[in-house]
Amino acid sequence: MSNAINLADPAVEPTDEDLCRLSREAFADVAVRHRETLVRLRERVASLRIDALAHAAALRAQALRSAP
């Protein structure tokens, strides 16, 4: 923070600009972290989908082998 203010000091009354700057700094990395999380989540879902399809195919093949 370039103009550090002590929000713990009851005598300090931050300006609107101070609060906007604090908000921007506090949440600056949220969008990037959100995108990274979505990428990991999509990769995990794709992996689980492949596993589920392979499992279903194996069950189907087993059922066909044991069918009269």
Describe this structure in words.
The chain is mainly alpha-helical and 68 residues long. Helices cover 71% and strands 0% of the residues. It contains two helices and no strands. It has helices at 16-26, 30-66. It is rod-shaped. It starts with 15 loop residues before the first helix and ends with a helix. The relative contact order is 0.07. The mean pLDDT is 93.
List the helices and strands and how they pair.
Layout lengths: L15 H11 L3 H37 L2
Alpha plus pi helix count: 2
Radius of gyration computed on alpha carbons: 27 Å
Helix and strand string, N-terminal first?
HH
Backbone structural class = mainly alpha
Strand count: 0
- State the shape: rod-shaped
| Averaged pLDDT | 93
Largest sheet: none
The gist of it:
By secondary structure, the chain is mostly helical.
